[in-house]
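Action item from last week, closing it out:
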Amino acid sequence: MKYQLIFERFLNPERISMPDFDVDFCYERRDEVIDYVGRKYGHDHVSQIITFGTMSARMVIRDVGRALDFPYAETDKLAKMIPNELHITIQKSLEQNKELAELYLSDETIHKLLDIAMALEGMPRQASTHACGVVITKDPVDTYVPLYMRDNTVSTQFIMTTLEELGLLKMDFLGLRTLTVINDCKKLVKNDFGIDVVFDEEMNDPKVYELWQEGNSSGIFQFESQGMTNFMKELKPDCLEDIIAGVSLYRPGPMDQIPRYIANKKDPDHAVYTHPALKPILQVTYGCMVYQEQVMQIVRDLAGYSLGRADLVRRAMGKKKLDVMAKEREIFIHGKLDDNGNVEIPGCVRNGIDEESANRIFDEMAEFAKYAFNKSHAAAYAVVSYQTAYLKAYYPAEFMAATLNSFLGNLDKVPEYIDECKRMHIEVLKPEINHSETRFTVDDGKIRFGLGSVKNVGLEATNLIVQERKEKGPFTSFTDFCERIQDKGVNKKCIESLIKAGAFDEFEQTRSTLIASFEGIVDSITDLSKKNFKGQVSMFDLGSPEEETDNSLEKLKYVFTTLKEYSDKEMLSMEKEMLGLYISGHPLEGMRAEIEEQTDINSLQARNAWEQMLANEKQDYQDGQQVKWAGIISSVKKKYTKNNKIMAFATIEDLYGSMEVILFENAYQASSGCLMEDQIVFVEGRLSLREDEKPKLVAREIRPFQAQKKTILIFDITDLTEAEKDRTRGAIKFFMGDRNNIAIQIKNGEDMMPGGAMYLTDEILQELQAELGEARVFLEEV
């Protein structure tokens, strides 16, 4: 009631079609819901739904081009001439794009390709199971529709819309990652603080809204994209209504209303209403039509419609049913009489609204309704968004740990959130055998990496290790660990991975020593276990009590090959191999400033540009734009083309994630000398943004990255008299101004002090050296 959500938008007596049942669940437990429904109503009464991937305009051009052996670059160029619009067709594109139409008429090959593509456009491309749709029937499903089996999953052979036409009840059971994050975070808070999280019912906590106002929206549901972050920073939301509006407005169509919404929020008196009767309905959105429910309210309050009929009008406007709209316009303005001449619907004019205003209001609704968003849906999402923001504001470490848990294995998102942790001053600790749980946890305000995240370890082994530690206490040494888990299915590969990840760093041995020794130690334990099992005891196992007290038994059993510790670079490389990212440091961290100075893009900015393209937003970077980038090579794959030319695909990682870099023959030949794993490189090339694949770089050149040396101007005033110092100061001052282009350092004996900056050319340098002496004024690289 508080947010004016209308039940009739969901279900009413005048609605003919079945409503949509969209229910979000924790994504880890969605299958439990489907199993429950099967048990509740009978497995033969429940089925998932088939869906057909159809050939869209761009896709069918690429498919036909591939089948006709058309050059990929030409096909791709042709496909990109199709406007990035919803429901666009090739025919519409020919009408809109003159360049495409000219190619179609002038080039026989392209004419043939597009003709075949138009014949195939819209046809099914492949069958799959609907991501969330489930149908529940009164009688067994196969009495209504034929069924289809794939990968042990039963689906209907009819698609969703056909099932609705048959009158069957369809529900969407969606797995929502954010609900899992919220649930995990609440468990972590309970574990760390012993309290149950209770969200404020009014949802008006200023501390929570500060996150949006300051642009700290990483991890906040629905508000992570750069465009949405910028929108919220400008809007400065301070109530849930603003969050609901944000969810609704930030999409193609309604985005045009964003500047007006922001301006009217800052100055509500600036809002303009077509008629005063609209103010009670649109005041909550500062004069902008944002929601489908507002259309229904306008039709009900101004013209006297029932909410059921108002929903029918809203649907007709949204689907542009012109004949229905023409009929409803007349009723909206002048009303409707029943067969007995009684007023059934008063209409605007009878309710005191002039005909001109009524017509304008109807036009505004008709234009807006095709983009209008369901407020009930937006409100539900806004509540989830608020809850994530609340957890981030009050329990930041627990929230970020839960978020990281939800993206385990995602090598793009995990580094992004690790970087967010650094920005929030939350330290992320590497795994430790006596402190880490299976998943990410919080340890004294710091996030501890989970053992289950280590490559080759696996959840089963991790759970056994954690259980052993909880039941019998912490592991006292590496050999104690090996003894206690030797019969628990933890193999050598698992132990090696834990060593490389740094899980045993708390013990006295170095990683290099453990790597060289662990196999012999594990074999010793296994051999001893076998002997004990057979009742065999060697003479070495029969020591005196003094020897046992002296721990000499352990010295006899275990031999460590003591080695010098690995270099920092080698240790970081092992962490990356085992954890998928760098934890205790990053090879690029010390070069961050130099990289930012020499490059003009990073992997996060490339991903943002790709997401902006998919959302049809203004892009910070364009497809085909020449860029400069730097990172560390994590893998290289070489390949030969059909023409027997060599090319390579390199995965390169920077501080924010990774990107694939493609090197065709010329670039490969020029760069092959530095295409090695763990090599830090500088990449120049073309940004590739395509809707069907993640952003890539097509390299023109790759070379080893080198920090650029900086040139400074040194003035040596050692042992100068005060008069000579004054003369030097005067010379420096003379060449200082708006065009300063070089930093100055003042040398006095062994001391160096910053001296500001000045404008310098070769001629000025010669002049200064002639005046003060070459030994007193000189350039130096630092």
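Closing note: Residues 536-556 have pLDDT under 50 and may be disordered.
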